[in-house]
Amino acid sequence: MQQFLQKLKTQPVVSGTSTGQAFWHSTEELIDTHSPVDGELMARVHPTTRDDYDKVVQTAEKAFAEWRTIPAPRRGEMVRQIGEQFRRYKKELGTLVSYEMGKSLQEGLGEVQEIIDICDFAVGLSRQLYGLTMQSERPDHRMYEQWHPLGVVGIISAFNFPVAVWSWNAMIAWVCGNVCIWKPSEKTPLTALACQQIILDVLVQNDLPEGVSCLITGGSEAGSWLCTDPRIALVSATGSTRMGKVVARTVAGRLGRYLLELGGNNAIIVSSHADLNVAIPAIVFGAVGTAGQRCTSTRRLIIHESIYEDVKQRLVRAYGQLRIGNPLDEKVHVGPLIDRDAVAAYQSALFKIKEQGGRMLIDGEVLEGPGFGSGCYVRPAIAEMPAQTEIVQHETFAPILYLMKYATLEEAIDLQNGVPQGLSSSIFTLNLREAEQFLSAAGSDCGIANVNIGTSGAEIGGAFGGEKESGGGRESGSDAWRAYMRRQTNTINYGTALPLAQGIKFEL
Ligand code: UN1
Q1: Residues 266/292, Cβ–Cβ less than 8 Å
Q2: Whole-model pTM?
Q3: How far is the CA of 507 from the centre of ligand 1 (A)?
Q4: Angle of helix 432-439 versus helix 409-417 axis, rounded to 10
Q5: Which atom of ligand 1 is nearest to the CA of 114?
Q6: Is residue 505 a part of any domain in this protein?
Q7: Are residues 333 and 482 in the same domain?
Q8: Is 295 part of the annotated catalytic residue set?
Q9: Are residues 308 and 165 part of one domain?
Q10: Distances (CA, A) of 276 to 284, 303, 308, 402, 425
Q11: What phi, psi does 179 have (nearest 5°)?
């Protein structure tokens, strides 16, 4: 890893294709990776060619034949060692995440911590891939189910969590006995290459098969190779709802499996019973953390009318204290957006807000001047919105927070559920009845529903994912591992007769 980072400085043209033990390239095209922090060219990456992709899949399939026979706790041991390596390189990798993606250093380090945490989780899981036993209706028969690995798992990850979300998939997939081919976002290939280097060290040290961990780089075309390829048993994709619909259609077309973690449009309900000292920092972190580029970012605030003015004033005060700038400076709260396209989407949303009758409480702008040279720094904005505005139905991946008023909790829950997405949600209240109503079947329709905690920053131990246009998949903790395995029902007859189920008589 150290050598990899050193090499990046001296040899800024790197291969974006790797199986566990080797990197190679055979293309003349290059992807330029600029940091949104200062606009510097960090490296140029050779994307994977179709021919190389085929070689990668062949190597992965060969590795799977061996990997699936290794006992799961031994596979867990490999993941334990991987976790140790990530502990060792936390600072370096966290810094690279921050520089390549633009999130604050604290959040970059937090991302690596998520990798370490999921490694620990996966190690324990490797001894707990439990199946059920059932009571057979026939004498001298035993029924049980067991879980087997799927095969080659394709992981398509997004720029906003360039390493953590890959690890949720890869670590679990590995202990389950699968091998992985990772296609990171073409906007953040270097953090992926750094992770692959870390895995490679562990594979080599343990004499494990090449191809347990593979990496390909490129844009949507490389992603589509994974989706159309029947050799890829499961495609786990993180990204926009638009992308997810294409992945779902394509993989379902060949009856493959897919797991989707897509956009969110997450709301916080602030009740008249809220402790605002807890609520305000949660709202601000949720709305401006990662510059509003988390799928769990807080985009809508639904505030009880009796405290609306108070919340408004406190938010304006809190936003006034935000430090925007170089995310590698530990005192900075908000770094840049990923690129100028993201800035354009932010500007277009601001325009639509005004056009659709929104009132800016804090107007957004693209920041200029010293330190803002990359052109990717923007001011987090707050807009007061009429309830059913079209722009509020969409996820804009930027720090824009919409404020709305409510009178009854039913109305607030309707507003919260009244968008196409269903990822994360929360309520701030000290009133037990309100909290339980929000969590009940008639409450939030999201995959994540919190009380007195913001919408972002989920722990790895829970199953992570959302409903509706957020994709329906679950990753990371709880029993999300089942998506990476196939279930087999086994019935064993240890008697001397052949009784048929349902009492059917078939005598010869
Ligand atoms: C994402 O933005 O794709 O809950 C994932 C959170 C993080 C993960 C976000 N642990 O905010």
Answers
A1: no
A2: 0.96
A3: 60
A4: 30
A5: 10
A6: no
A7: no
A8: yes
A9: no
A10: 12, 11, 11, 18, 17
A11: -115, 160
Strand, coil or helix: what is 186?
Answer: coil
**Pocket of ligand 1, beta carbon within 6 A:** 160-161, 165, 238, 294-296, 456-458
pLDDT in tens, 77-87: 999 999 999 99
| Containing structural domain, residue 167 | 2-262+471-488
Clarify whether 186 is annotated catalytic: no
Nearest Cα to Cα of residue 22 among 213, 167, 185, 232: 213
Element (H, E) at 382: strand 381-384
**307 and 420 in one domain?**
yes
Contact 159, 101 (CB under 8 A): yes
495 in any annotated domain: no
Domain CATH for 196: 3.40.605.10
Q: Would the pLDDT of 10 be above 70?
A: no
Q: Are residues 14 and 75 located together in one domain of the fold? A: yes
Give tens-digit pLDDT for 446-473: 999 999 999 999 999 999 999 999 999 9
Q: What is the DSSP letter of 365?
A: -
Can you say whether residue 496 is alpha, beta or left, with left for phi > 0 and alpha for psi between -120 and 50 degrees?
alpha
How far does residue 164's CA lie from ligand 1's centre (Å)? Answer: 8
Residues 200 and 338 grouped into a single domain: no
Asked, for residue 504, whether it belongs to a domain, the answer is: no
Q: Does 362 lie in the same domain as 254?
A: no
Mapping DSSP to helix (H, G, I), strand (E, B) and coil, where does residue 166 land? helix
Dump pLDDT digits (tens) for 338-377: 999 999 999 999 999 999 999 999 999 999 999 999 999 9
